[in-house]
Each structure stands twice: as structure tokens, then as C-alpha cells.
């Protein structure tokens, strides 16, 4: 395999034009490649584990539209199901049977969920669940973790991860202090810090929200006992525990992180995979809490396109595909081979690295580690990651364009894809 020095003339022309039309030329910040240098490639089409850009270059994709494409892009069964329902309409703005079907599948799969409400994005789900937490407990304060990203709503843009970390932005301008004054933060994996916050704010904290496996500061796993400790602390203090499983739901296990680690929160947010590549979000939990949502209860939340037939159909078919025997064994085996291979090669070539995987989610930090939280992640050599990213792109490997984003595999990735990726990584890392 040799450095192809891909031709990106059309991508550059399109992105240059886009910068005059949209802020930064993109519809979501991390797509702009700011932290890795160079201009982004402009996609033309996707299929399976692959991307083709507007210049005709082909790439093996480890972003998977940031998580939803766990079965592979444009899966033929998902596309066929969408084509069938498309003839009935794209949006009803009224109840449809498909909502019931997907709701039952989600409730059956996710341990904490007894009732669910569909929305249109992970951000929406997290906004709604925060309002619900406060209403149920009659308390205003909430604990989040540094580097965890729960969407771009004002109250969550406090030491947030994802694009905020990628771009090195402070807490966003335009967010009033009043919106974040009740948001308390602690380092991820630090139970003592959480305990101290509860002690300093007795009977004032509505709950704790976190990514049970962090994907928005890079890939960071919970220390042994951390999730269990949060469960105990919240119960002791009359607060709710919320898992943001927008990323981990149906990815690291069919029932998400709560199934994987055996810790059941009170509420859960979902997105990405349950929409099969279409815009979707959801939140759910115990029946007594969810019954407070309008029109059953007084907590208002609504959405014109919520539960639309296309997103429901794509989600239903995706979950059906994930239920096939051996799915998660296959995902774990191929992702572990990729993650372990990258670490082994990097260390052999003299680089300080750490990382790993859980099922179809992985990460690599250019630091000796270990990485337990966002402060540890920030010690990474981001300049080196930028060079690594570009050189891998030149060899047809598309990785998340930020040191602070997790990577994803899919059922469509083959053993040969993994081997080719490791071959490319050895070339790059030996000369980096």
C-alpha cells in the first residue's frame, strides 16, 4: 500500500463555496477538520463500510455517520423498508403504528425503560430529560461530567466535550450564566468529587447525567465501581441517575451500557442507531417518572416530526438486524482486532499511545495514559493525531477528524478492511 496523495479538487471547490453559504462551511462543527488540518472531503455516496467522495476516492469508514451506521451504510434491508413506507408519506404529525412497534422494541431491550418518548435528536432528548428530572424531584441542580457532551443546549455547554473540545472553545458565548448556574461539574471517574457535590448541595440536586462510556472526549471507559457508585450516591440522596446512551445504546450491547455493566439508571436518552441513519432521539425510564410527560402529566415537550414513519421504519429494521445471533460477538471480535492492532503497531514504532474498545466502539490517544477523564485526554499530542489522521486519509482510511471523538465499526467491515487499515497504520506510524 502506498501513499496515494488523493486528488481532492472537487471537494476543495465545494467546501470553499460552502464557507460563503454556511458558518464554517458545515452544518456541524467537527466536520470542518479544524483540529486535524486541511479541508474536509465532501461525500458523494456511502455503502456498507465505504465512502466515495465527489472526486471519486474510496475510503473505509470508521465514523459511520457518527454512530448510526452499525449495520453498514445504506443497508439493503433498511433501504427496502424505507422505500416501502415512503409511498405512504414522510411525516404524519399524528400517531402511527410504527411508533408502537419501535417503542416496544426499545422497552424490551433497555433495562431502565418502561415508557419512551420519541424526539428528533440526542440534544432534544437530553433537554427534555433534564426538564423531567427537575420536575420529578422538584430540584434545580444537576451534575454532569467534564468532557461529556449531551447536546448543544445552553445548560449542558459547561465543560462540554465533542466539538467544543475539538475546537478548543470555552463555554459558548450566548449562554447566559442563569442557564448554567445550576449545572455542577465533576471529573469523570471521580466518585469523591460527586460525593462532595452532594454534600455541598444537600437536597438541591435533581440528578446525575453522564455518558456511561465517554465518546465525546475520545473513548474513555468507566473505572471499576464508578457506575455502581453513582447508582448508590443518587439513591442515597434522593436524586435520579441518567445514562446518556445516544452513542452507546445498541452499540456496546443490544441493551446498551446499562446491560453491559449491569447498572440500571432511572432515565436513559437514546439516538443514532434507533433511527437507522435518519434523525431521531428518544428518552425513557421508569413509568412513574415518564408519566409526568404531557399529555399524561404537566411536563411539556413536543415535536412536529417526532415519531415520523421514516425514522421509525429505519430504526425498527436496524434493531431487527442487530437481533440476529452472533451480531455482538462479531462486532467485538473485529473491533478488538482493530483497536489492539493499532495500539501494538504504534507502540512498536515508538509512539506513546493508549486506548481500546468495547464492542463496536474504540479509541486511540497519543499519550502514554492511562486516560480516566477529560483532563487526561487533553494531555494527548493533538498535533501528532492531526498528522496521523491526514496520512490515513491519504491511504483511504476515514477516521473521526478529532482526537476527542470515538471511532465506530460496523457489521459491514470485513477482516480484509481491518487488515488493510492496520497495514496503512503501520506505514503512517513508522514515518510519523
Characterise this structure.
This protein has 432 residues and is of the alpha/beta class. It is 37% helix and 14% strand. It is built from 15 helices and 14 strands. The strands form 3 sheets. It has a 7-stranded mixed β-sheet with strand order 4-10-9-8-7-5-6, sandwiched between helices. Helix 2 (76-86) runs antiparallel to helix 11, helix 3 runs parallel beside helix 11 (309-322) and helix 12 (327-348) packs parallel to helix 15 (415-431). The radius of gyration is 21 Å and the shape is globular. The two termini are 16 Å apart. Residues 164-170 have low confidence and may be disordered.
Blueprint of the fold:
Elements: H1 9-18, E1 43-47, E2 50-53, E3 58-61, H2 76-86, H3 97-109, E4 115-119, H4 122-137, E5 141-145, H5 163-166, H6 177-180, E6 183-186, H7 191-200, E7 205-210, H8 226-236, E8 240-244, H9 256-261, E9 267-271, E10 281-285, H10 287-290, H11 309-322, H12 327-348, E11 354-358, E12 361-365, H13 374-377, H14 382-394, E13 397-398, E14 407-408, H15 415-431
Characteristics:
four-stranded mixed sheet, 432 residues, 14 strands, seven-stranded mixed sheet, globular, alpha/beta
N→C terminal distance: 16 Å
Q: Report the β-strand fraction as a percent range.
A: 5-15%
Which residues form runs of ≥5 with pLDDT under 50? 164-170
Number of helical regions: 15
Rg value: 21 Å
- Helix-strand pattern: HEEEHHEHEHHEHEHEHEEHHHEEHHEEH
Q: Specify the helix fraction band.
A: 25-40%
Overall spatial form: globular
Walk across the major sheet and give the strand order: 4-10-9-8-7-5-6
Provide mean pLDDT, rounded.
94
The biggest sheet amounts to: 7 strands, mixed
Structural class: alpha/beta
Oligomer: single chain
